[in-house]
Amino acid sequence: MKNDSLIAAEFVAQGRSEDCPVIDMHGHYGPFRGIYFPSPYADGMLHTMDRCGVKSIVVAGHAALVEPERGNRIVAEVIRMHPGRFFGYRAVNPNYPASVSREVERFSEDADFVGFKFHPSWHQYPLTGEAYKPALEYANDHNLLVLSHTWGFSEVDGPRFVGELATAYPRVTFIMGHAGYGEWEVSFAVAREHENCYLDLTAAYREGGIIEQMVETVGSHKIPFGTDLPWFDPHYGIGAVCFSHITDEDRHNILHRNAEHLLARLRG
Fold it and tell me: What is the CATH number of the domain that holds 113?
């Protein structure tokens, strides 16, 4: 099938598109134990982003998943040093409930944090557990984003859990990290049913044909782009979007418009 995309042609010719910038709604920051990252810090990440036209990235600190106070402080400093390029999710560790409340209290201290990051699989703690409640209530009161890791058939963060929370916290915008990878039909149903649920493309783009299925079933307006940088290079994910059988309007939605809309709402 011939690809008539002007965006794809521009990426092929120049490695990036002036008309279609990229905003990455699912990134991380800093080293992670047991794995080597070539570029886990700001300078290296920005070099990679600049090569393929990633305008901005929203990150959660790896350190913050274990030590929220220290890790979130690191991300806050990166945001201050690179305004407009980095935004942050304030990560919480539900295994230490008191620390969740402290991070909620600190939320307003740092500019350009746009919401919270949950990782139930890493913490082995259910997404609907009580320890997340202070963060969810605060996010609901302030119309914030919550990016949560989700994975298909998981007993702690399967996509069905997001549906439960979306009903209970209607003013939170839930971004389903990895779109409940593998349990696609449930993820799609949750995103269709709940206006405040979005399907994050991170990792999902590795599944052949899934972008087309998402666009056809849920709509490109509900699919923000993400890469997990520095875990994965954004070139692959951008290429997957460029060479999927979708329209350039869909590509614009996925690669930047949806993120622009979500971030603008936080400032409106």
Answer: 3.20.20.140
